[in-house]
TrEMBL record:
Source organism (scientific name): Hevea brasiliensis
Protein name: L-ascorbate peroxidase
Signal peptide from the UniProt entry: 1-26
Record field: transmembrane: 394-417
One MF annotation (Gene Ontology) recorded for this entry: heme binding
GO biological process terms held by the UniProt record: cellular response to oxidative stress; hydrogen peroxide catabolic process; response to reactive oxygen species
Keywords on record: Disulfide bond, Glycoprotein, Heme, Iron, Lectin, Membrane, Metal-binding, Oxidoreductase, Peroxidase, Signal, Transmembrane, Transmembrane helix
Annotated family: Belongs to the peroxidase family. Ascorbate peroxidase subfamily.
Source organism superkingdom: Eukaryota
Pfam families the UniProt entry points to: B_lectin, peroxidase
Keyword hit for Transport: no
Cofactor: heme b
CDD domains in alphabetical order: B_lectin (cd00028), PAN_AP_plant (cd01098), plant_peroxidase_like (cd00314)
Domain Plant heme peroxidase family profile: 502-717
């Protein structure tokens, strides 16, 4: 080999060495601290799940974590065993896998999205000499003298961890809910307060008002010195507690303890009662989707408004925590709301004269009988309407009374006319005839007609009084109708749905509700499955529908219900029959008169990425995708006992039995099931549910409720 060839060969060896060195360095995690001159993207640590800095005890890691959209990432601190995120740097501003985290030589720290910084800690202009991830999970930025100039514990997101101090001026803010509502925990004047993040915040829990009086630290280790707990402000309005050392298992304790005392246990304006049973208040019974039709009456372009009475059987979560807008009479309170264009509802306490006005409304609470709170809701009205103090629910009463009155009047006029005609045919003396003829002429005739009208009106008064009296009980009976019907439906479903038939019934739910698409708000839980049974993907569902038809006939004999409601309730009961969680179902869905569009259900052959995109179009996250997939734990898919609803599905997924060529193991699961365990984001939830059945049950319940409510068209209950 000549000299030039040797040089080229040596150059090639050096180049390969440099490339391999860079590739090897890219995957190395640092323990404890990193120093200036450090930078990288998620791609650099892709083999370490994007995590580049570990605490000395390896319990916590700092790095990139995927969002529900697997192409976007957040910079987080994560517990390595439970995979629970305890802090996030760039909430609301996720980055791509090529975007860079910089710890510059000049001591500045930042995360960039392209060329634009999306997170920079406020160090007061001081140079950072090192970044340390402590064993407590606290990310600390150290100055030149090793003093702390910034720390994540002083800037929490939605989570507090054991021994983390929570001081006045700090906030925990939940992720946005499906309705884009956030919940905020903060300390004000020495009291810890939990509020709904409406335009004007509405508190719904405070430590001073809570009889249980939890510790001001929210989490402590007095009961178990080795346990590490976190408190999380969830996007459903609860504060939940998780034991990280037990795989992130959830505690039974939640704040607030009553689920109906949260701002939105149901949709806005719905009434929550019992164990999260939701129904439309009678005041909005004729409104589309149980909504008043206005967001703010300050924009007069949508027409005039009216106040309708919702009666005195309702309560509102914020009433015990906010000061009254004024102390006045009911009429004064109504006038204040009418004159305030931002007022959407008022609550008046008869016992105190307190008037409460709100510019945004969450869910109502069922206060039962004997409540002293009167509720009025502002709704759109006809431009000619001037009756702002009457209730829309009174409209049927007025119609019935007017129609009945007219019928009675016409009936009495007819009787009077027949009587008069018959009387004219009777023989009479000339004197009598002459007197009657004179009496029925001119002014005498007018007086007789007026007198008869008076007599007719007076005679109808007792009838109208009793008619109105009989109708007074209508509203109360209607309020009880939903609960009565719901109980009847569950009873009849239990008679026909055995454990062996549960899987087919649950599949019926998924195939009816699974057609929902957020774009265009099409499909959803609408009973259209009855028109779609001949489609190939619905093979075998005719039998399940036939089973439910028996129950529906029994229910319809007492109270007509929609197929959409029947299927939703039946699916929830099928889960419960097999030992799964109890799932409450709202009634009032309308049935579709035609089939939904084809091709909306996820195909069994989809990979994880396509599945996530498909579920995202339906408004469902990756977490909800994995939770709902757990329904395959019952039935013939091969995941454990086919008639027991538990977390066996996830345990068997982790074993990957289809990799074996022996016996029937290779037949277990659908291709879509197998794809989940190969995806890092899905795998996190699979492991969590395999470790903790309670978390799976809770997530499945919430995802099921969201599924059967998505896209539904509602009638009043």
């Amino acid at each position: 080999m000549d000299c030039r060839g040797l040089i080229r060969f040596m150059g090639f060896i050096v180049l390969v060495f440099l490339i391999l060195s860079e590739a090897c360095m890219a995957g190395i995690q640092t323990i404890g601290k990193i120093y200036p001159g450090f930078q990288g993207s998620q791609m650099n640590w892709i083999d370490k799940n994007g995590l580049f800095l570990l605490s000395n005890n390896s319990n916590f890691a700092f790095g990139f974590n995927p969002t529900s959209d697997v192409t976007l990432y957040l910079l987080v601190i994560i517990h390595t065993t439970s995979l629970d995120v305890i802090w996030t740097a760039n909430r609301g501003s996720p980055v791509a896998n090529s975007d860079q985290f910089f710890f510059g030589e000049d001591g500045t720290v930042s995360l960039h999205k392209g060329e634009r910084p999306v997170w920079t800690p406020d160090t007061g202009g001081k140079r950072v000499s090192a970044i340390e991830l402590q064993d407590s999970g606290n990310l600390v930025l150290l100055g030149n003298d090793s003093s702390v100039i910034w720390q994540s514990f002083s800037h929490p997101t939605n989570t507090l961890i054991s021994d983390q101090e929570f001081r006045e001026g700090m906030k925990l803010v939940s992720d946005p809910s499906a309705n884009n509502l956030t919940y905020v925990l903060e300390i004000k004047s020495g009291d810890m307060i939990l509020s709904a993040g409406f335009r004007t915040p509405q508190p719904y829990w405070s430590m001073q008002n809570d009889n249980d009086k939890p510790s001001i630290k929210l989490v402590d280790n007095e009961k178990d010195a080795n346990a590490t707990w976190i408190a999380v402000v969830e996007n459903d309005g609860f504060i939940s507690f998780y034991n990280l050392n037990d795989g992130g298992s959830a505690s039974q304790t939640k704040i607030p303890s009553d689920p109906c005392s949260r701002p939105e246990p149901c949709d806005a304006y719905f009434v929550c009662s019992g164990n999260n049973v939701c129904q439309c208040p009678s005041a909005l019974s004729t409104s589309p989707n149980c909504k008043p039709g206005i967001v703010s009456s300050c924009d007069g372009s949508k027409g005039s408004t009216a106040l309708v009475s919702a009666g005195n059987g309702l309560n509102y979560f914020a009433l015990g925590f906010v000061p009254a807008s004024s102390k006045t009479s009911l009429e004064g309170c109504q006038s204040s709301c009418r004159d305030n264009c931002s007022c959407l509802a008022l609550f008046f306490q008869n016992s105190t004269g307190n008037c409460f006005l709100f510019d945004q409304i969450g869910s109502f609470q069922d206060a039962g009988t004997g409540s002293s709170v009167v509720t009025y809701i502002k709704v759109l009205s006809d431009s000619n309407s001037g009756d702002t103090g009457s209730s829309k629910k009174g409209f049927p009463f007025v119609v019935i009374i007017v129609v009945a009155t007219v019928l009675v009047i016409f009936g009495l006029l007819y009787v009077a006319f027949r009587y008069y005609k018959n009387k004219k045919r009777l023989p009479a003396s000339p004197q009598e005839t002459s007197e009657d003829d004179n009496f029925l002429e001119g002014e005498n005739l007018d007086w007789v007609c007026n007198r008869r009208r008076i007599l007719i009106c007076v005679s109808t008064l007792p009838f109208l009084y009793h008619l109105r009296e009989s109708l007074e009980g209508f509203s109360a009976e209607a309020a009880e109708l939903d609960t009565t019907t719901y109980v009847l439906m569950k009873e009849e479903v239990r008679k026909v749905v055995s454990k062996g038939k549960a899987a087919g019934v649950l599949r019926l739910v998924f195939h009816d509700a699974g057609t929902f698409e957020t774009v265009g708000n099409s499909g959803g839980m609408n009973g259209s499955i009855v028109f779609e049974l001949d489609r190939p993907e619905n093979a075998g569902l005719k039998k399940s529908l036939k089973i439910l038809e028996k129950a529906k006939i029994e229910v319809d004999a007492k109270q007509s219900v929609s197929w959409a409601d029947m299927i939703a309730v039946a699916g929830a009961e099928a889960v419960s029959v097999c030992g799964g969680p109890t799932i409450p179902v709202i009634l009032g869905r309308l049935d579709s008169a035609e089939p939904d569009a084809e091709g909306k259900l996820p195909e069994e052959s989809l990979g994880a990425s396509s599945l996530k995109q498909c579920f995202q179009r339906k408004g469902l996250s990756t977490r909800e995708l994995v939770a709902l997939s757990g329904a395959h734990t019952i039935g013939s898919k091969g995941f454990g006992n086919p008639t027991v609803f538990d977390n066996s599905y996830y345990k068997i997924l982790l074993e990957k039995p289809w990799m074996s060529s022996a016996g029937m193991s290779s037949m277990i699961g659908l291709p879509s099931d197998r794809a989940l365990v190969e995806d890092d984001e899905c795998l996190r939830w699979i492991k969590k549910y395999a470790d903790d059945q309670d978390i799976f049950f809770d997530d499945f319940k919430n995802a099921y409720i969201k599924l059967v409510n998505s896209g539904a068209r509602w009638k009043s209950l």
